[in-house]
Amino acid sequence: MNQNKLMFTLLFGFVGILFLGFMATKVIPKMYVTWTKAAPASKVSLADSYLIGGKILAKSDGIDKCVVNVFVLDSSGKGVKGTQVSLSGMSEGDIEALSGDDGKATFEISSAQAGQFTLSASIGGSPLAKSVKVTFRE
Prior knowledge:
The protein is an alpha+beta fold and 138 residues long. It is built from 1 helix and 8 strands; from the N terminus they run H-E-E-E-E-E-E-E-E. The strands form 2 sheets. Strands 2-8-7-4-5 form a 5-stranded mixed beta sheet, with no helix packed on it. A 3-stranded antiparallel beta sheet has the order 1-3-6, with no helix packed on it. A hairpin with a 2-residue loop joins strand 7 (115-123) and strand 8 (126-137). The longest helix has 35 residues, at 2-36.
């Protein structure tokens, strides 16, 4: 009888080891990859995205900066990461940035030329409806 218990224990142990090996090499890695895959990229909503002046008045010394933020959002108002944003309206030409984790692309602009500039943003080549004015004073 003790010999039957020993054989049963050995067989059960062997099957257990095979099961754990199978789980460790076949099932768990696939589950881990599934759990850690990034969610699909959100679609940008131009109607919900916007730009806003963080600091719209600066000295025209080429050092002091105006700050403009562009928020790239999807249709549910969530930020879209990694989207190319262009800001135009400065005499130096277009400036480009990528949106961060929160969907915000920040532009710090300096100018040695005094004046007021109307800045427009575009996301993926499509312009946003509104613009913002920044002023550089002597």
